[in-house]
Design goal:
Number of helices: 6
Number of strands: 9
CATH class of the largest domain: Alpha Beta
Mean pLDDT: 89
Low-confidence stretches: none
CATH architecture of the largest domain: 2-Layer Sandwich
Strand content: 15-25%
Order of helices and strands: HHEHEEHEEHEEHEE
Distance between the termini: 90 Å
Structural class: alpha+beta
CATH topology of the largest domain: Heat Shock Protein 90
Strand order of the largest sheet: 2-4-5-9-8
Bound molecules: adenosine-5'-triphosphate, magnesium ion
Largest sheet: 5 strands, mixed
Length: 295
Amino acid sequence: MTGAGGGEDIELLRRMLARERAAREQAEMLLEDKSRDLYATLSSLQGVVRELDAARRQAEHHSAAKGLFLADLSHELRTPLNAVIGYAEMIAEDPRGDQVVEDAQRIVVAGRGLLSLINNVLDYSKAETGKLELSLQPVEVPAVIEESIAIALPMAREHRSRVLAEVGPGFGTVTSDPMRLRQVLLNLLSNSAKHTKDGVITVKATRLGPQDYRLEVIDSGRGMDRGQLERLFEPFQPVRREEGMRFASTGLGMSITRRIVLMLGGRIDVRSTVGQGTVVTVDLPVAGPPRMEAA
Ligand SMILES: Nc1ncnc2c1ncn2[C@@H]1O[C@H](COP(=O)(O)OP(=O)(O)OP(=O)(O)O)[C@@H](O)[C@H]1O
Ligand SMILES: [Mg+2]
């Protein structure tokens, strides 16, 4: 009896042990699952923290750059404004003096510099807030090229550079905003003119097919290294006076240019080699930017 009873007890004990082990194993598995979940949540949280941190750093960088830009800008505004006031005062004090014409010319130069600076800053802030409006119409690209070259030519001549236009056959009419297109070409041409001495600047226009055309501004100037190329489209580059230039550089030209090209439905690409020159390629749609569907 005892033996049989003892056997049952052992059997019962064995089963209880087995059940307990199973329960423990299940609990361990559950724990393992939960800690895996917890680990996954933790790492995705770490990812979010990292992203937030990067966003914060970028915002700080941007706002620091804006602060610097504003400081530079007010300096750049004050310098020509002081020149305008100073020379105007000299004329007022001695209206018949022999320096009157030169003083008036200095006022014109300083005034023009101020105007281009103000225009750039306004355009940049409009483009930043999406308020730059386009006036789309049929455009003769060769005519826009000619106009832009005519404006940039004096700058190129200051550095004894030539400016050529090459328009491919059968270019035809495109849909665009002529003023903005001219602004793009002028920005690119003025950059080439600033940085090319005794060289050649070529504006090329070619049809890429029925839907697209390509504008290129190619110069044999001093070119840019990788670092300069990487920062090229960044706004708020330090304002500085280029050697031999009469006008201030706002460092906004390329950021405005890129925004306009995007608004016109195109893309811009820059290749450059130090000491050899720069090629800026702008591809645009013949039919203009795709229409925004009404919401
Ligand atoms: N064709 C080029 N050759 C060599 N360097 C260039 C050329 N185009 C641009 N860069 C460099 O890139 C910088 C930024 O150009 P960007 O047009 O944005 O500003 P900027 O010409 O200095 O000023 P802004 O156009 O506002 O008057 C220039 O200051 C210059 O250092
Ligand atoms: Mg420029």
